[in-house]
């Protein structure tokens, strides 16, 4: 299997991960639910939150997705940026997905689109992570 | 049960957490193995030539997510802390022992540094409740 295929397997299996951003020169992280479309990740956050303002100032993010200790599952690490959602069709599709997950009205949440520049595939056997560089958007 | 005891209960659940650092204007995070003291100080080890060590030398602030197990009604900690290097062979050995317990490989770096994380703010988070509980650290 190629690195890409292994990455796809984790993306298909996992939806919970950590999202770290920089806020006031400090790291700040939280657990989030993600949905992937190709290598692009989507997640939602509360509207008008301080986090959202920090992301507007500095869109750099770091995500760890699919880490499950005690299993032999691989997990992923993403370095990327939050970009806007431009596609209305996709916005509706993703919002419907997250509405079903969170039971919240779509208007209460903001959708974040995250485009990775690098993805690392981590195995739990201690071998070095495999790096997958994405083409520049 | 007071908030500090609740925090200690969560720290006892598992010996690892996700530790975030900043390098320039970029966030980074990785899974680290920890031990803790009764006063909520955390310790971890990092290889001498590691990114995390480079990061905390320039920016000592960290944010650690600890104790999440992906259950329906889960409780975990959000820890804001400040990182410093420490010298304590006993604590370093204890971290190594925890590492070996949860990994199938051994920590393959002879030259490691002990990092001490002093908590600045700790909050107990519930996945099903909106309000976090502030931990009284001191």
UniProtKB/TrEMBL annotation, chain A:
InterPro entries, sorted: Pyridox_Oxase_N, Split_barrel_FMN-bd, Stress-Dev_Protein
Pfam families: PNPOx_N (PF01243)
Start and end residues of each Pyridoxamine 5'-phosphate oxidase N-terminal domain: 4-121
UniProt-listed Gene3D superfamilies: Electron Transport, Fmn-binding Protein, Chain A
Signal sequence region: none
PANTHER family linked: PROTEIN BLI-3
Protein name: Pyridoxamine 5'-phosphate oxidase N-terminal domain-containing protein
Organism expressing this protein natively: Candidatus Kurthia intestinigallinarum
Source species taxonomy: Bacteria, Bacillati, Bacillota, Bacilli, Bacillales
């Amino acid at each position: 299997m190629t690195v890409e295929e292994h990455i796809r397997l984790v993306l298909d299996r996992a939806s919970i991960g950590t999202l770290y951003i920089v806020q006031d020169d400090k790291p700040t992280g939280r657990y989030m639910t993600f949905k992937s479309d190709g290598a692009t990740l989507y997640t939602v956050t509360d509207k008008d939150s301080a986090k959202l303002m920090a992301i507007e100032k500095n869109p750099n993010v770091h995500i760890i997705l699919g880490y499950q200790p005690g299993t032999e599952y691989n997990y992923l690490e993403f370095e990327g940026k939050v970009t806007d959602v431009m596609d209305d069709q996709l916005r509706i599709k993703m919002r419907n997905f997250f509405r079903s997950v969170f039971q919240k009205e779509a208007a209460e949440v903001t959708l974040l689109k995250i485009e990775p520049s690098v993805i690392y595939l981590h195995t739990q056997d201690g071998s070095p992570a495999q790096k997958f560089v994405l083409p520049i958007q | 049960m007071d908030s500090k005891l609740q925090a200690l209960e969560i720290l006892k659940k598992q010996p690892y957490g996700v530790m975030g650092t900043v390098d320039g204007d970029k966030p980074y995070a990785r899974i680290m193995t920890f031990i803790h003291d009764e006063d909520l100080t955390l310790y971890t080890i990092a290889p001498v030539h590691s990114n995390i060590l480079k990061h905390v030398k320039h920016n000592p602030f960290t944010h650690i997510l600890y104790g999440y197990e992906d259950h329906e009604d889960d409780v975990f900690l959000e820890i804001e802390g400040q990182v410093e290097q420490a010298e304590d062979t006993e604590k370093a050995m204890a971290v190594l022992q925890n590492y070996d317990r949860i990994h199938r490989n051994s920590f393959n770096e002879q030259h490691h540094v002990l990092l001490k994380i002093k908590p600045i703010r700790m909050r107990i988070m519930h996945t099903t409740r909106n309000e976090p509980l502030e931990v009284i650290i001191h």
